[in-house]
Amino acid sequence: MDHGFRFIWKNLIETRRLLWIMVLTFAAVLLVQFFELPRDNVLSSLLSAGKVAFFGKRNFPDKGLSSSLGTVGNITNTYTIQEIPNSAKILNLTKEEYEGNEGEDERTKFDCVLKKNGSIHIEFTSANNGSSLRDSGKCRDFERAISSRNATEKNDTSPGNIQTQHVPSTPGQNESSGCASECLPAFSSLSPVSPTKLDSVTPVISVETNRSPVLKMPLESNISIENNNSSMAPSRTHGKSEMPKLAPVTISKMNVLLLHSHSFSNSTPPQQISTGDKELLHAKLEIENASSIDADSGLYGPVYRNIFMFKRSYDLMDKMLRVYIYKEGEKPIFHESILEGIYASEGWFLKLLESNKQFVTEDPTEAHLFYIPFSSRLLELSLYVRNSHSRKNLIDYMQNYVEMLIQKYSFWNRTNGEDHFLAACHDWAPAETRGRMLSCLRALCNADIKTGFVIGKDVSLPTVNVQSAKNPLKDIGGEPAIKRPILAFFAGYMHGRARPILLKHWGKDPDMRIFNRLPHVKGNKNYIEYMKSSKYCICARGFAVHSPRVVESIFFECVPVIISDNYVPPFFEVLNWESFAVFILEKDIPNLKNILLSIPDEKYLEMLNGVKQVQKHFFWHAEPVKYDLFHMTLHSVWYNRVFRLNLA
User: Fold this and answer.
1) For residues 93 and 328, what is the distance between their CA atoms, to the nearest angstrom?
2) Residue 91: is it exposed, middle or buried by C-beta count within 10 angstroms (0-12/13-18/19+)?
3) Rounded distance, CA 81 to CA 180, Å?
4) Long-range contacts of 209-216 (CB under 8 A, 24+ apart)
5) pLDDT of 282-310, one tens digit each?
């Protein structure tokens, strides 16, 4: 009897010990999850087998990433896209109503999907374009990174690498974009590009320190994601928390994106192939096979990517291009021009095209391109409600206009608007031309990759601060190199993230002239004289990436130093910017002087000569002149349409 009692008592003790071990184990799991997951979801993440809220509605900026998942956490895995049949979604996150620099509103959804083998995938869906992205990995990593992003922002460092890529959600679309059952290949493994598409001149100056390898990149979003520490202060947040800052897309990566875009077009084939389409295809073949016989003695080869292709393309445009301009639209938003100020480029282009008899046709059936004649500046002046901090009515206005065109005509639907184009110079234009208008060829002054600018489709329109509509070329020219004692010059309002740091580091340097806003002088003489007397002119971004200083530098024969991450310089399709400009990442501002002093005098003189050679491409004339800004803008639109045309 005693033996039986002792046996039972021993079993009870062992059972109690096992229970304590289970309790402690469960507590340890809870403790680990407490630090890895947002606090309000520890239990739900552990216990729920169905869909639960990730962490409710939480706002964080998208910065134009309509087709890419932002960089989060220290995630370094390489991911591939797989179908996930019969899977259970276990976590859900919705992001909505973020108003960034461009005022875009997007609704984006993330789902964590549990596969049968136990692995978890993140599924990303954008309501704007229906695109989706599935990344293998662990939702726990994603969730931990989101919960710790505030600490990351305080240290102002970019997180580790995460590879993302765009996957069309429409069946069959993978084939047209170069994807079959697998994702787009890394750029290093792409099929060889025709030698005629390669730059004719090796890039000269491109400063990209602390680079990390490029993995795969979305075809249309043009976003580079890499590990890169930054000393820059965070940008405006409009009172909302930000995701960790993505690494900038460097000028060399932009070159790769351009080659890829023109070599692997995923544009929508026309519903019906027109005579104009066949003419464009013929033009493409002729441009690709251009040779030295197409050279022009008036053009300087080193400033072009391929002078023979440019010359052949320009001549074909001059000979055959036909543009139809929609008559619809009420003034002043449509068919009205502002010809002075920093938004003048859109007004000059509209005015000159509407009065043009060479390229404009009244017969839409013979048109190669369709022009939407609106002014983003006049749209803002007419409709924006002061201090409302909302541009929704502007965006809706343009969407309604396009819907009207679609209902009234068949031209848009034939190509999904891919043969339509516009020219807009206001900072808000990327937001105003979202939605259906994203398929258009957009000539934008605010050519920012991270607000949706697509290299190889969209055109970077020069920002020209026209002082006098009657004399837009006043004071052009500058001192010879020997009479330029100032190493570098900048003056302007201290807005944005880059300029205050520029002033802090170099405002007192005796070899430079780095100022806040200069005192007003009639005709802006002091500003102009500084530009004419400086070797290098600093073109630092403000709130937006574009600045009239880029064109002003060229006007006054001062080598531009572009400090504006993710800014695509004007006419990027044809100009070899690295032959006449210096590109410096914003994080490298503290090293600015060393970078400039490291450029040999011989190289500086080559760049200065390049600046003088491209001047003619940035002039507005009351009556258009060959190779001027009007013709170059139209040519870049034409060129991108030719190389994106897909008749398959």
Assistant:
1) 42
2) buried
3) 11
4) 209/585, 209/588, 209/591, 211/250, 212/161, 212/247, 214/186, 214/187, 214/253, 214/256, 215/78, 215/161, 215/163, 215/186, 216/163, 216/164, 216/165, 216/183, 216/184, 216/185, 216/186, 216/187
5) 999 999 999 887 777 789 999 999 999 99
